Amino acid sequence: MTNNQLSQLMLFSWEIQRSRQVTRSKALANAWAILLNANLTVWYLKKKYSHPSYPNRDNNLQLTLLAD
């Protein structure tokens, strides 16, 4: 993992820890799982928040969880 990816992981885990009020290790494990399954996470969020009458016009390949 690069330093950029590690810093994103740490920032993401801090965000989870603050918002969910869980322990540091649990927040880090959650962030790690989300980032490892980023493509599934993006697909799930797009499906969850899409309106059934009109599909999102974004290409699935262009969506990312975190911008590099």
Task: Please give a handful of descriptors for the protein shown.
68 residues, mainly alpha, 3 helices
Explain this structure to me?
There is one protein chain. By secondary structure, the chain is an all-alpha fold. The protein has one domain. 63% of the residues lie in helices and 0% in strands. It is built from 3 helices and no strands. It has helices at 3-20, 24-36, 38-49. It is globular and about 40 Å long. The model has no long low-confidence stretch (mean pLDDT 82). Keywords: Membrane, Transmembrane, Transmembrane helix. The chain crosses the membrane at residues 27-45.
Number of helices: 3
- Rg over CA atoms: 14 Å
Shape: globular
**What does the largest sheet look like?**
none
The percentage helix is 55-70%
Cα(first) to Cα(last) distance is 13 Å
Overall pLDDT metric? 82
- β-strand percent reads under 5%
Low-pLDDT ranges: none
The structural domain count equals 1
Output the helix-strand order.
Answer: HHH
Structural class: mainly alpha
User: How many beta-strand segments?
Assistant: 0
Q: Outline of this structure?
A:
By secondary structure, this protein is mainly alpha-helical.
Write the layout of secondary structure elements.
Layout: H1 3-20, H2 24-36, H3 38-49
Helix pairs in contact: 1-2
